[in-house]
Design brief:
By secondary structure, this protein is of the alpha/beta class. It contains eight helices and eight strands. β5 and β6 form a beta hairpin. α4 runs parallel beside α5 and α6 crosses α7.
């Protein structure tokens, strides 16, 4: 099964992608992981991407597309994959279609995780990270530490990342609306989009997504 996962920042794409990929026995292909892997391994694409990043420039779509295509050609993706963070814009979506067409393949579904914008802001802006260990994550409302501002695990200071501040989150949402939302209409025209309400517990959202997939295959 070949799936694209879309949704605004804070919709839980990374979490859902990991669960869905495991349930479907297909690799979770994340744009962030692709960049980190290529850069850390010093691949030609990684070096090219790093040169743009070091100069403070955006990495061109051509580099991102090449990384994604290379990853989709790996043996573990022969029976399918779940794309998370790619395609990010209309140009990338069209390039993905061309790539799949050349391989005599096609997407099975595009899962659109739906979360109200105010909830997205609340989820991200409420996040607090431990300065000692960034894997220790709390939330001002949903996962409060026992002592305000103090990590329950190691006693470190909890802080709000600049990327998580409300004004930054709203700017990220503007970018999502401008660049990424158009791919939803693009895929809707192909009859591929499945709307998944992404409110509630993680396992509830996963169950909804898994239940929706057979309907696309019927």
């Amino acid at each position: 099964m070949r799936i694209v996962l879309v949704g605004p920042p804070g919709a839980g794409k990374g979490t859902q992608a990991a669960y869905l990929a495991k349930n479907l026995a297909i690799p979770h292909i994340s744009t962030g992981d692709l960049f980190r892997a290529n850069i850390s391994q010093g691949t030609p694409l990684g070096r090219e991407a790093k040169s743009y990043m070091d100069a403070g420039n955006l990495v061109p779509d051509s580099v991102t597309i090449a990384m994604a295509e290379d990853r989709m050609e790996q043996p573990d993706a022969a029976n399918g994959f779940l794309l998370d963070g790619f395609p990010r814009n209309l140009g990338q979506a069209k390039a993905l279609d061309e790539y799949l067409k050349d391989q005599s393949l096609k997407l099975d579904a595009v899962l659109d995780l739906e979360v109200p914008e105010d909830e997205v802001v609340k989820r991200i802006a409420g996040r607090r990270i431990c300065r000692n260990d960034s894997s220790h994550v709390f939330h001002a409302e949903y996962n409060k530490p026992e002592t305000a501002g103090v990590c329950d695990v190691c006693g470190g200071e909890l802080y709000q990342r600049d990327d998580d501040r409300e004004e930054t989150v709203r700017k990220r949402l503007e970018v999502y609306h401008t660049e990424t939302e158009p791919i939803i209409d693009y895929y809707k025209a192909q009859g591929l989009v499945v709307d998944i309400p992404a409110m509630g517990k993680v396992d509830e959202v996963t169950t909804r997504a898994m239940a929706a997939l057979p309907a696309r295959d019927a």
